[in-house]
Structures are given as structure tokens and as C-alpha cells.
Amino acid sequence: MITGGCLCGAVRFEVDAFVGPFELCHCSRCRKVSGSAFVAAIGVRRSEFRWLSGEELINRYEAPLLEEPPAYRVSFCRVCGSPVPDPLDDGEWFEIAAGLLDDDPELRPDRHIYVEHKAPWHEITDELPQLDKLSLRRLRQDSER
Amino acid sequence: MFQGSCLCGSVRYQFKEIAGPYVYCHCSSCRKASGSAFAANVAVPSSDFNLIEGEALLSCFESSPGKRRYFCSKCGSPLFNKVGTAPALVRVRLGSLDSPFTEPPAAHIFTSEKAPWYEIQEGARQFPAWPKPEALAVPGSRQGTTDVPPGAET
User: What is the C-alpha end-to-end distance of chain A, expressed in Å?
Assistant: First the structure.
């Protein structure tokens, strides 16, 4: 069992196990949402995720659609602003910001994505694959086949 | 002149200059506030820092006495911090910056609280908590103040 929560501690959740993928997203929207160099998004199955508290404190913002749906959406604790989990859609899988976790998710990042939008002040120093939008799209298509 | 904004664009700020080096902070509070592996905040003179738009939409969370974290109430984006012990400086979150800025961080701090899933580059300057001010000064932070226990957030 892995627990996590927002900075103020109002929004709390637990996860049985993470399935991945685990991606560090450098797109400009993820940089705005985190205030940092990237969002660390780790995949979980809805069936393995449970709210512990604070679900009623979550605000959501949907950004204007850039290309095709779904639109970029962020959920955050209205008390402290931390980006919190958002299992709203019907899909069986969604992503959680790994910075919220209290425990080791026992997965490690798979790749950097949207590296063409990387902040110029941040250098990627590890050996993980670095994917731009096109190569990420190719990877996603391949995994759906 | 540097400019920055939140995800939804409601809150916009500008400032003239960045005061000194900055660090990546890996403490658990910074990780929770960002959802990422670390926070990256630059110090900016308060006298130069101006909100251009959206001041009424700012929310603030006081994560510890005198430490106020400001974010957009509409989209949640973290924008800047104010620290009561260093009122002359605002700490701006680099992820919100729209202007070009290329300077890398001077060091990683609070690596004792680092996420187990994030590897820091070998050879980078690292400090388990606050660096001693003579080793590296972190402008606008609570470094060196007596009210901050070891391991406290930045």
C-alpha cells in the first residue's frame, strides 16, 4: 500500500500498486502546473486507487483544447494548490503526480516526454529515453496495437 | 524584464532581475506543492516584482509560520512564495516563467528528503538539508534563521 496527499494534508489517497508508465513531462502546461521543470506522472488503475479524505476540496481546471480531446485538465487542492489525482473519466487507468507520494512507488521513470518544450534552465542528466511529441505518439500507437 | 503567468493566464507578473543563485529543493513540502521531484524558485527583489493581472484570483497557503505559497485559485498553478523573515525578496517558481532564462541551478538541497525515484546527476553540488550560508547562500529563503529546525521545508 502506498499513500499520498497534498501539501496541507486535506486531500489523501492510497494506491495498492502502480502499473506505470512513469513519465516526466516537460511540456509548458506541465511546467506551469508544477511550477518546476516537469510533472512526474505515474500510472495507476482506478480499481487500485482509493480516496482517504478531502475529495470535496478538489477544484478542476480544463485548459483550452489545442488539438484533439481530451483537453488538458488539472485538479488541485483548493486549500494549498497541490496538483491532486483526478480519476474523473471512465478509463481504467489514470496518472498521479509522483511528488505527492509518501512512499516509494517501486517504479522508476520510464522516459522524458515533450522534451522539445523543456525549460532552457533545466538539463536532463539521466540516460532515460527522451521523446518529443511525434515519437511519443508513435510509442502510444504501437502500444495500442 | 521577465514575465510569467499561471496555466490559465489569469495571473500575470513581471520583474526586472533575479537576485543571486537558485537551487532545486527536494524537501517533501516542495515535492508535494509541485507534484514533481523538486521545486525551482528564484529570488526576486520585492520592490521590482509586480502583479500585472489577476491579483484577486490569487490564493495563499501558509505552509509554516510566515511562509506563504501563492497559487492561482482558478487553475492551481503555483506562482511565488513570500517568506516573512526575508520580506525584501519574493521567491518566484521558475515553471511559471514565460521569459527566456537559461541559468542552471547552483545546487540541490534537502537531498535527504529526495524522492526515491529521482536520481540526481553525479557530480552536482548536493546538500542533505540547508547549505551553510558560507558554502552557498540561498537568497530569500529561511536559510540560517533560528526558527527553522533541521529538515524543515524551504
Answer: 32
Between chains, do A125 and B32 touch, taking CB under 8 Å as contact?
no
Q: Measured between alpha carbons, how far is A11 from A102 in angstroms, rounded to an integer?
A: 13
d(CA B57, CA B5): 12
User: What are the strands of the beta sheet with B50-53, ordered from one edge?
Assistant: B2-5, B12-15, B50-53
- Inter-chain touch A121–B119, beta carbons under 8 Å: no
- In this prediction the ipTM stands at 0.94
Query: Are the CB atoms for B57 and B72 separated by under 8 Å?
Result: yes
Q: Which residues pair with A25 in a beta bridge?
A: A39, A113
Q: In what order do the strands lie in the sheet with A49-53?
A: A2-5, A12-15, A49-53
* C-beta separation of A77 from A84 below 8 A: yes
Asked if B31 reaches chain A (Cβ–Cβ under 8 Å), the answer is: yes
pLDDT tens digits, one per residue of B93-141 = 999 999 999 999 999 999 999 999 999 988 889 999 988 888 888 887 7
Set of chain B residues whose Cβ sits within 8 Å of the Cβ of A97:
34-36
Whether B36 and A34 lie within 8 Å, measured CB to CB: yes
pLDDT for res B145: 63
- A30 CA to chain B: closest CA distance, Å? 8
> What span, in angstroms and rounded, lies between the C-alpha atoms of A101 and A3?
6
How many CB atoms within 10 Å of residue B4?
Answer: 25
Look at chain B and count its residues.
154
Q: Is the minimum CB–CB distance between B13 and chain A shorter than 8 Å? A: no
- CA–CA distance, A103 with B152 (Å, rounded to integer): 19
pTM for this predicted structure: 0.93
**A125/B35 Cβ within 8 A:** no
Shortest Cα distance, chain B CAs vs residue A79, angstroms:
7
**CB distance from B2 to chain A under 8 Å?**
no
